[in-house]
Write a structure and sequence with these properties.
Order of helices and strands: HHEEH
Strand order of the largest sheet: 1-2
Radius of gyration: 14 Å
Oligomer: single chain
Distance between the termini: 30 Å
């Protein structure tokens, strides 16, 4: 394996972990609403949001009234199932 391949694999795992962390925030909410910001107050990475939407794990819900460029998303049934399956496989 070359160094570039290792870096690419690490970035893919990091994106998956970031997506998992973001999506898991919707599990505790009845409406499944997902956070706009992470635990450090930074906006959620747009790549994470786009990948989750493209995968069907999240869906756009509405635009923020204060910041129309921010899309509020919510967890889908597919996303909820993927999170629960992932949690079971980690045991």
């Amino acid at each position: 394996m070359n160094n570039a391949m290792n870096r690419a694999q690490f970035r893919a795992r990091e994106l998956d972990r970031n997506m998992y962390d973001w999506l898991s925030g919707g599990l505790g909410r009845e409406d499944g609403r997902l956070a706009l910001f992470d635990s450090f107050g930074e906006p959620i990475d747009k790549a994470v949001v786009k990948t989750a939407i493209a995968s069907g794990y999240a869906e756009p819900w509405f635009s923020s009234p204060m910041r129309p460029q921010w899309m509020v998303c919510r967890l889908t049934a597919k996303g909820r199932g993927a999170l629960l399956a992932s949690a079971k496989s980690k045991r």
